[in-house]
TrEMBL record:
It comes from Herbaspirillum hiltneri N3. Keywords: Membrane, Transmembrane, Transmembrane helix. This is FecR protein domain-containing protein. Gene3D superfamilies: 2.60.120.1440, 3.55.50.30. InterPro entries: FecR, Ferrdict_sens_TM. It comes from the Bacteria. Residues 57-148 form the FecR protein domain. It holds the Pfam family FecR. The chain crosses the membrane at residues 32-49. The keyword Amino-acid biosynthesis does not apply.
C-alpha cells in the first residue's frame, strides 16, 4: 500500500518527479566524470608506458637537402625547404613532417615507426618510403617493402613497392603505379617527370629555386613534361625548356615567367 504525505508535510519534501530528474542528472554527471577519468588515465598511462626521451627538430633551406641517421640505424633524408620533428620514445619512433618532403629507410627494431603529415599517418611495416606534405594532405610512395596509410576517414590502405597514395581533406586516393625509378628520384638528386602537367612540374622546380616560377598563361599548365633532370641544375632545365615545349622562359628580378609561344598551348608535348 502506497503511503502519502499529510497535506501539512507535503511542501517540505520534493515531488517524486523532482527526485527522479535529480537522480538522472547525477548519473549523467558521474558518467561524464568517469569518461574524463578514463581519458586522463589512458593518456597518462600512454605517456608513462611510452615516454619520449629525445626530441629533435630538423630543417632544410630552399635548394638544400640533408641526411641524418638515427641511433637505431634508420636513415631520414630531407628534401628542399622541409621541416620535421623526431620523437624517440621507449617503444616507438614518431616523426611529424611539418612541411616539405622526407624519405625514410627504416631499421627494424622492437619499436614501431610512425610518420604523421597533414592528417595522414604512415606506419612502417618494413620498407623504404617517401612522404610529401601537401596543401590539403600528403603524398606517400613506397620504394621497398610496405606501409599502412591512414587518414581521418575510410579504411587504411597498405602500399607496396612502386605504389603511391594521396590524402586530400582526410580521404585516401590510390594513384597509378609508379614507373621504375620514379619514386624517390629526388634522393638520387633527380627531378623525374612522366607526362607531368607543366603546372605541377613548375611547382617542383620552384622548390629548388629562390625565385617563384610563374605560368603567364594558365593554358600552358596542361602541357606535359617528361624526363629526368638534375636537381642541382634546375636553371639548366629552364634554359632548355623552350626546346622541349612550346614556351618561352624570361627572368625578372622578382620571378621566372613561363609564357606560351605561337604554338597551340593545348597541344601535348613530351
Amino acid at each position: 500500500m502506497r503511503a502519502s504525505l499529510a497535506p501539512p508535510l507535503r511542501p517540505r519534501f520534493p515531488a517524486p518527479e523532482t527526485i527522479i530528474r535529480g537522480a538522472a542528472k547525477r548519473r549523467t554527471v558521474r558518467k561524464i566524470a568517469a569518461m574524463a577519468a578514463v581519458l586522463l588515465l589512458s593518456t597518462g598511462l600512454a605517456w608513462l608506458i611510452d615516454p619520449a626521451y629525445d626530441t629533435r627538430q630538423v630543417v632544410t633551406g630552399a635548394g638544400r637537402t640533408s641526411t641524418l641517421t638515427m641511433a637505431d640505424g634508420s636513415r631520414i633524408q630531407l628534401n628542399t625547404d622541409s621541416e620535421l620533428r623526431i620523437e624517440s620514445r621507449l617503444f616507438s619512433r614518431r616523426i611529424t613532417l611539418l612541411r616539405g618532403e622526407a624519405g625514410f629507410d627504416v631499421a627494424h627494431t622492437y619499436r614501431s615507426f610512425v610518420v604523421e603529415a597533414h592528417r595522414t599517418t604512415v606506419t612502417d611495416i618494413g620498407t623504404v618510403f617517401d612522404v610529401r606534405n601537401q596543401e590539403d594532405g600528403a603524398l606517400v610512395s613506397v620504394q621497398q617493402g610496405a606501409v599502412e596509410v591512414r587518414s581521418d576517414s575510410g579504411p587504411p590502405l597498405v602500399l607496396t613497392a612502386d605504389q603511391s597514395v594521396r590524402s586530400s581533406d582526410g580521404k585516401l586516393e590510390r594513384l597509378a603505379d609508379l614507373e621504375p625509378g620514379q619514386s624517390g628520384a629526388w634522393r638520387r638528386g633527380k627531378l623525374y617527370f612522366n607526362a607531368t602537367p607543366l603546372r605541377e612540374a613548375a611547382l617542383d622546380m620552384q622548390r629548388y629555386l629562390a625565385q617563384p616560377v610563374v605560368l603567364a598563361d594558365a593554358r600552358i599548365g596542361d602541357l606535359r613534361l617528361s624526363g629526368e633532370y638534375n636537381i642541382k641544375d634546375v636553371n639548366d632545365l629552364l634554359r632548355v625548356l623552350p626546346t622541349i615545349l612550346p614556351v618561352t622562359v624570361k627572368r625578372s628580378p622578382g620571378a621566372i615567367v613561363i609564357s606560351a609561344t605561337s604554338a597551340t598551348p593545348g597541344n601535348t608535348a613530351k
